Amino acid sequence: MRELFDTDVDRGQVGIGTLIIFIALVLVAAVAAGVLVNTAGLLQSQAEDTGSDAQSEVSNQIDVVSATGTVSGGDVGTVELVVKKSPGSEPIDLSQATIEYTSDTSSVTLTQGGTADGTTFSTTDVSGTSGTVLDQNSDRIRITVDTSSIESSGLGAGEEATLEVTDQSGASTIYGVNVPDVLTGKDYVRV
Fold first, then answer.
1. Is 104 exposed, middle or buried (0-12, 13-18, 19+ CB in 10 A)?
2. Phi, psi of 163 (to 5 degrees)
3. CA distances from 48 to 38, 43, 51, 91 (A)
4. Torsion angle of alpha carbons 46, 52, 58, 62, nearest 10°?
5. What is the helix, strand, coil percentage profile of the chain, to 5?
6. How far is CA 35 from the centre of its chain?
7. Cβ distance 85 to 137 under 8 Å?
8. Mean pLDDT throughout 33-38?
9. pLDDT tens digits, 67-107
């Protein structure tokens, strides 16, 4: 009878050891799951921030509705862009925008000012705005760039320039100005 009792004690000790190992594995798995859940939450937060930043840079675009140049002394002295915000854009404040003007002979960064000259561009209301903020898709603002103050006498026939408009969110829109080959007898041209 004693032999039977000793065998049961050995079996009980093996069962308790297995139970302790099982509990330890469950605890390790719970800690690992907690770390994974925490990491997943952090990655989701970073992905949402990156997504919203990318969306604002992509969607906050300025659409150029029309572009004209005023001919003065045989050259285009001013360039006027009528702009609107693209669909899905947040309000765009042109008072905080910059325009990078680049041609074969000049490269200037312009800021918004009351009048257009060699360092500033001007904005005027065309429809439904305060003159600087595009709130609705129907809003239009005229941006005037004085090329005669930037270049020696303006943009000549056949010359080109690039206007890169960067708004307050950092999104940029590039517009290429192409002056027609013939300016004689014209007061305004499409550029």
1. exposed
2. -115, 115
3. 16, 9, 5, 21
4. -150
5. 35, 35, 30
6. 34
7. yes
8. 92
9. 999 998 889 999 999 999 888 888 899 999 999 999 999 99
Query: Length of the chain, please?
Result: 191
* Residue type at 169 in one-letter notation: S
- Residue of 110, 112, 109 whose CA lies nearest to 132: 112
Beta strands, E only, the chain: 62-72, 75-85, 92-93, 98-103, 107-112, 120-127, 133-134, 140-146, 160-166, 172-178, 188-190
Instruction: Give residue 165's Cα distance to chain centre.
Output: 11
Burial of 168 (0-12, 13-18, 19+ CB in 10 A): middle
User: Among 176, 141, 124, 185, which Cα is nearest to 155's?
Assistant: 176
pTM of the model: 0.69
The answer for 73, left when phi > 0, alpha when psi is -120 to 50, beta otherwise, is left
Backbone Cα Rg of the chain: 34
Q: Which residues of 22-52 are buried (b: 16+ CB within 10 A; e: fewer)?
A: eeeeeeeeeeeeeeeeeeeeeeeeeeeeeee
pLDDT at residue 90, rounded to an integer: 86
Q: Which pLDDT does position 24 carry in this prediction?
A: 92
Q: Residue for token digits 């042109």?
A: 94
